[in-house]
Write a structure and sequence with these properties.
The protein is an alpha/beta fold and 234 residues long. The protein has 7 helices and 15 strands. It starts with a strand and ends with a helix. 24% of the residues lie in helices and 26% in strands. It is globular. The strands form 3 sheets. A 7-stranded mixed sheet has the order 1-2-3-4-5-6-7, with helices on one face. Strands 8-9-10-11-14-15 form a 6-stranded mixed sheet, with helices on one face. Strands 12-13 form a two-stranded antiparallel ribbon.
């Protein structure tokens, strides 16, 4: 796992598939997404390397239920005592109570998904002991007030987080950046692509300067313009 500083309060945690983000307030840390199966200990090591204890992470906010985002959530929550939060529509899959619905793949997505799947670790994730539901419009206690935005399409319970005071947006997999040239793109492997595009338009209306994606390099500076360009071209 690579740890990359983006802003004084923000680090990117990059896994072989997908990535998570660590936000630092003066008194606590927040983890946005939690990597793949077995990532809990690697996240704890990264937190320590940044000069904190795992217990300083107060919450883990999951943008959606896919295994490359929630695989390490239960393990790291057990190590840290952090509260796990997700949208109620995705929470049963995060808790392991039900299997999540499969994406409706476009034909061109199938080889990309197959290649990514080969990089995922084997095994069954440890489910969190509990999951707190968060819904559209909720404000969470980090980053000066993190606003929850329900952005269905990639999954029914996908959420984004926007920090208005910091102008930082966490999109989950509603938006991505190309691994080839870094261009900003709509997310792939979706349940409902038209719904995802409508959610992307909603995110493009925000005054974000930094956009942090579930896959691909973040946009650090001018994120709103980049998102509006994608929304216009949808």
């Amino acid at each position: 796992m690579d740890v990359i500083g983006l802003l004084p309060r923000l680090h990117l945690l990059r896994f072989p598939v997908g990535q998570a983000y660590l936000w630092r307030d003066d008194d606590a840390l927040t983890l946005i997404d939690a990597g793949t199966i077995g990532a809990g200990r690697a996240i704890a090591d990264a937190v320590r390397a940044l000069g904190h204890a795992p217990g300083d992470v107060r919450r883990i906010v999951l943008t959606h239920f896919h295994e490359d985002h929630v695989g390490g959530a239960g393990e790291f929550a057990a190590l840290s005592g952090a509260e796990v939060l997700a949208h109620p529509l995705d929470a049963p899959f995060v808790r392991g109570e039900l299997p999540g619905p499969h994406p409706r793949f476009e034909d061109w997505e199938l080889p990309i998904h197959a290649a990514a799947a080969k990089l995922l670790p084997d095994g069954t994730p440890m489910p969190p002991a509990s999951v707190t539901g968060v819904s559209d419009g909720d404000v969470l206690g980090f980053g000066g007030g993190a606003r929850v935005i329900h952005v269905p399409g990639h999954t029914d319970g996908s959420i984004a987080l926007f920090l208005p005071e910091e102008r930082v947006l966490f999109t989950g997999d509603t938006v991505a950046a190309s691994p080839v040239d870094g261009s900003v793109l709509p997310g792939v492997f979706n349940l409902d692509r038209p719904q995802l595009l409508a959610s992307l338009v909603r995110l493009a209306e925000l005054d974000a300067d930094v956009a942090c994606f579930g896959h691909g390099d973040p946009v650090v500076g001018g994120a709103a313009a980049a998102l509006r360009e994608v929304a216009r071209a949808r």
